[in-house]
Amino acid sequence: MFLQTAIRPVARRALLPSSSSSAKTLTRTFTALRSPVLRQTLTPVRHHQKFPLKTQFATGKRFFTTDPAIVARPTRQQSIQKLLYAGGIFGGSLLAINLLFNNESREDSIPLYERAYLQETFTYTGLGVGMMGLAAKGLHNMGWSYKLMSMNPWVVLGGGLVTAVGTLVATRATDPDNYIQKHLLWSAFNLSNAAVLAPLFFYSPAILARAGLYTVGVIGSIAFVGATAKEDKYLYLGGPLLAGVAVVALSSLGPMVLPLGSRALVASEAISLYGGLAVFGGLTLYDVQKIMHNARLADKGLIKKDTVNESISLELDFINIFIRIVQILGQQQQNRR
């Protein structure tokens, strides 16, 4: 999974006079859309012995400030309108998806063991997403996002894949009876993803909140369709969706290999953004039906109950849908300026 961020730190440089007429201080300030702000002060040092005309810069100390961000708070009427608007989107998407994909719902009600299995899986999914969000915010506050953005993108991509895929495979391979090791590896998987997601906090809190609300609506509506549809109705989508994931993953590498401003780059970004939304929405539908299928197998004693493994798939669906909604909202905000 390759994370692209549309907003990067803005570098400001200013020369400030010091007490000495011959010495000046160069201040470089990295700012995001909100605090904390990372400031790095570089002080010029003149070497008069060997190089009287050459100026070198010695790196000073880095420090953080927690100045409150200036946010224009909406009125109560605007907040109510936005809440009703979000509720309408959720209800409309739920109705539309239900009419399009759930015209053949199951005749009987969901059995208790399937319902309990699904609820426990979604509980782990919520805990995992919450762990990622809190860890990503903490890393961003400590300046990790600035370091990550300054690294070589291939190093970030390779390191992120190794840690995320490694912890994912280790978690899935661990027996569910080994409770402590299973949950430690699952936590490591969430933290490794949080390290890559930390730069998302360069976006404004309003965009992140709206994207989170929309993602919950999309995941919830699709999960409702998958849970109420006929048994194993959408399990055949596994193969085509896997091919779609491969196409989306390759298109995400476009900005790293294609020239800026080219039509091929625009097309690859569109495939990664909007095609990714469609693919991971379909994967959510497939994963919910697979979870209920595994619940029936676990109830018959054919496989072991492992809701941690089931939750990982839904976490990945949530992350990828959330990232793309954030990018879409960020582009809309930039176009309004």
Automatic annotation (TrEMBL):
It is a multi-pass membrane protein. GO terms for cellular component: mitochondrial inner membrane. The chain crosses the membrane at residues 83-101, 151-171, 207-227, 234-258, 264-286. Signal peptide: none annotated. Its main location: membrane. The keyword Membrane applies. InterPro entries: Bax_inhibitor_1-related (IPR006214). Pfam families: Bax1-I (PF01027). Keywords: Membrane, Transmembrane, Transmembrane helix. The keyword Transmembrane helix applies. It comes from the Eukaryota. It is found in: Membrane. Belongs to the BI1 family. This is Inhibitor of apoptosis-promoting Bax1-domain-containing protein. It comes from Tuber borchii. The lineage of its organism: Eukaryota, Fungi, Dikarya, Ascomycota, Pezizomycotina.
